[in-house]
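Team,

Forwarding the record for the chain on the shared tracking sheet. I've put the sequence and predicted structure together so nobody has to dig through attachments.
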Amino acid sequence: MDEREDELLADELAALAAVAGGWGGLTRFVAKLMRKNVHEIDLVVALPFEDTVERVARVLGRAGRRVRLGSEPCAEQRMIRVVAAGGVGGMNPVVVTATVTKGGASDSQVRLRAAAKEGLIRQRAGERTASRLAALLHT
């Protein structure tokens, strides 16, 4: 998961640089060298599995652009991934991955992972995005 996450972050930063008139290829290379801010939060959602999957998909869909995963859905677990905007002015892409696991009849577990590249000024975009989305999922 980390390798694909790094590729997505590098691609998103390169695209932002190209739009701003910079060199996308150089930005992609430098992004791979930057440290990453990663934050994971585990939640228990008091909804059945399918309802939890729908809720997570809706909340993450509002937060960012959905990224297709290559894996087939499993009966016991689903993964949803988006690229959201984080940091100052929303200019730092954050890859958010939610893994929903079937719990009991009336609850499900959600592991929320958010990762963002960090420049010279630490913005903790991964940590802040994970916390913000966890709060939306918990309400």
